[in-house]
Design goal:
heterodimer, A: alpha+beta, B: alpha/beta, 6-stranded mixed sheet, 4-stranded antiparallel sheet, 10 strands
Chain lengths: ~400, ~240
């Protein structure tokens, strides 16, 4: 035990004493580990941004969209559809589901009325599509009992209104046969620049106030189901609806969220790892190069240590441990640098997308970076350690 | 039982061109505990090789080396390293202090290989040893800031830190002026005397050799006795 501690002390002393050399040789490893960790963090961030973007447009995994239409091209009655959909939702106790129909509403802005894309949804739609308002909030249960319709608008819509403070309960007139004044309760971020104004309304409000737009679509049903049961649900829901609506209607049930996301994610991870390994390999080569040169300058010292009674094994272990200690320290510094970069640089903006759930600092990457640095240190230490052991003591002392 | 027994020891090396070079031939020498033995010889006579053999840094090609009654021929590298660390202290001509370490760290360095209690209290033992060689106030000084004499004192302290039974000195005054060299030899004699360690000095300085109890000459690899009358009288320096 004492021997092991002594070997560690010796190795650490060596690192401490030759700190300038060590620092110079380890800059590569430090940068490599920092790069590796930052790249992994970037990868996590990109994956999260990708996932969130996908969830906003197509729903979370697994979102099934149900659609029904007549074979002759006419739309079935909305009431028939909604009651059949409700029956299916209730039968399978689907916790998150939403009707979705779209239309174009005329909205009275300060500069005049203009058509706005509108979506009638149920409350769970927000959760299913990860809708996180930048201001205000999404619909709550209490909103369904309001005396005036509530709307969640996008930033473009909000800007047309003159960006009023939502705490003042700003209202807007939804024009039509029966104009109705709606209260803006939330503002969602624009998905892309130059996005046109759009608005979300509750299905319940549309029916309650008889809001009518142009080109109303038939309601669709969206179901958020466990991904592992998505395929089974697809078949069951199709069969149920066929039973409820009759064979005259064409029933379409398909998965809305991208199913190849895992494949893309897996490929992205391999790319990230590949870049990281190359970066670390380059750092290791620099370390090995300097370590080899250095050990040749330390021939006399190694010989003197052998005269103190250092065995070959001890010399090997000490020289290798120097490398391990040094790379571990460099790895730690690299992780600290990576943390500083990830925490202080708006990476999500750099990768071109807003991320709602900013991923935590990738601890896994930090640990992997440290372990990889240490392993690289051990591997890079083997060569100089072997050279050190081969030093002939007599020649070394005379050196 | 003698401390060191060399019986017909030879050392041969093969040169790069394939020729055989006999560095030592049939060396027979017995050294008792507490003795001071000097070996003089010209450069290339095999003095350092003989010292390396005695210190288990090298192995004889012929003959037998018995250390404290134990033949060394069959010892593994590991056993030789352990015996070397525990039983021998080396003092080199060029001091060979470890760069980048203070005097204290240099003196404590051999204790990194000793294990047990001595490892844990190495700094205290080193400080005590530096006091003994008169460098207690230079403990935190780097070697390059020390004079030649001070560096050799540090080297002596380092060689003694593990209380070796044998101190092997290879030209201990070779890099020092006469006055400092005499002081160093006085110190070595005194400390070896106090600890009862055996002192083996190889030198080409007859005045340094004259201080020993027994004297030998090594010439072209052959060891023979040296008539003390041929040696210059040892200088004595009154300690200040």
């Amino acid at each position: 035990m004492t021997g092991l501690v002594a070997a560690f002390v010796e190795a650490w002393d060596e690192v401490r004493i030759h700190k300038v050399r060590v620092i110079v040789s380890l800059i590569g490893v430090l940068i490599a580990v920092a790069a590796m960790t930052v790249i992994t963090a970037l990868g996590d961030m990109a994956r999260q941004a990708n996932a969130e973007h996908s969830e906003r447009t197509s729903g979370r995994a697994a979102t099934l969209q149900v659609n029904a239409w007549s074979m002759d091209g006419t739309q079935p009655a909305a009431d028939t559809l909604t009651s059949a959909y409700a029956e299916v939702v209730e039968r399978h106790a689907v916790e998150y589901s939403s009707l979705l129909s779209t239309t174009e509403l005329r909205v009275q802005f300060t500069e005049g009325a203009e058509p706005v894309w509108a979506s009638y949804v149920d409350r769970p739609y927000g959760e299913m599509h990860r809708i996180e308002p930048a201001h205000g909030r999404w619909f709550s249960a209490a909103d369904e009992r309001r005396f005036a319709p509530a709307i969640v608008v996008n930033e473009a819509f909000h800007q047309r209104l003159g960006e009023p403070d939502l705490r003042t309960n700003p209202t807007v007139v939804l024009a039509g046969e029966r104009p109705v004044r709606a209260t803006v309760i939330g503002v969602t971020p624009n998905a892309y620049s130059d996005e046109m104004p759009s608005v979300y309304l509750l299905q319940a409000h549309q029916q309650q106030w008889g809001i009518q737009g142009m080109y109303d679509s038939a309601p669709l049903l969206e179901l958020w189901v466990p991904p592992e049961n998505a395929e089974e649900f697809t078949e069951v829901v199709r069969a149920d609806l066929a039973g409820l609506l009759g064979q005259d209607l064409q029933i379409e049930v398909y998965r809305l969220d991208p199913t190849d996301f895992d494949v893309i994610d897996g490929q992205l991870q391999w790319v990230v790892r590949g870049v990281s390994v190359i970066a670390l390999g380059m750092g290791a080569l620099g370390l090995l190069n300097i370590a080899l040169v250095t050990v040749r300058y330390r021939v006399r010292e190694i010989g003197v240590r052998r005269s103190f009674g250092a065995t070959s094994g001890r010399v090997f272990f000490s020289v290798m441990m120097e490398s391990v200690f040094a790379t571990a320290v460099a790895g730690l510094a690299g992780v600290v640098l990576a943390v500083a970069i990830v925490k202080n640089v708006p990476i999500d903006e750099l990768i071109g997308g807003s991320v709602t759930d900013v991923p935590e600092f990738p601890v896994r990457a930090a640990v992997e970076g440290l372990v990889a640095a240490t392993v690289v240190g051990a591997l890079a230490g083997i060569v100089p350690a072997t050279v050190a052991v081969r030093v002939k003591v007599i020649d070394a002392i005379r050196f | 039982m003698s401390l060191i027994e060399l019986d017909g020891v030879g050392r041969t090396v093969f040169l790069p061109d394939g020729d055989r070079l006999e560095i030592l031939r049939g060396v027979t020498l017995t050294i008792e505990a507490g003795e001071h033995v000097s070996i003089v010889g010209r450069s290339g006579s095999g003095k350092s090789t003989l010292l390396n053999l005695m210190g288990l840094l090298d192995t004889p090609s012929d003959g037998e080396y018995v250390l404290e009654g134990r033949p060394t021929r069959g010892l593994s590298q590991r056993q030789r390293a352990r015996l070397r660390g525990a039983g021998f202290g080396f003092v080199f001509q060029q001091f060979n202090l470890l760069p980048g370490r203070t005097a204290l760290q240099n003196v404590a360095a051999p204790l990194l290989y000793s294990g047990g209690r001595d490892f844990w209290r190495r700094n205290r033992l080193a400080a005590d040893m530096l006091e003994r060689v008169g460098l207690g106030d230079r403990a935190d000084t780097m070697p390059e800031k020390l004079s030649g004499g001070e560096q050799q004192r540090v080297a002596i302290a380092r060689s003694l830190i593990r209380s070796p039974r044998v101190i092997l000195c290879d030209e201990p005054t070779g890099a020092l002026d006469v006055q400092t060299g005499t002081e160093i030899m006085d110190l070595l004699d005194a400390i070896a005397g106090e600890s009862g360690a055996t002192l083996v000095t190889i030198t080409h300085d007859t005045m340094v050799a004259a201080r020993a109890h027994r004297h030998y000459r090594l010439d072209a690899g052959l060891l023979g006795p040296l008539d003390p009358a041929t040696l210059a009288p040892a200088r004595q320096v009154v300690a200040s």
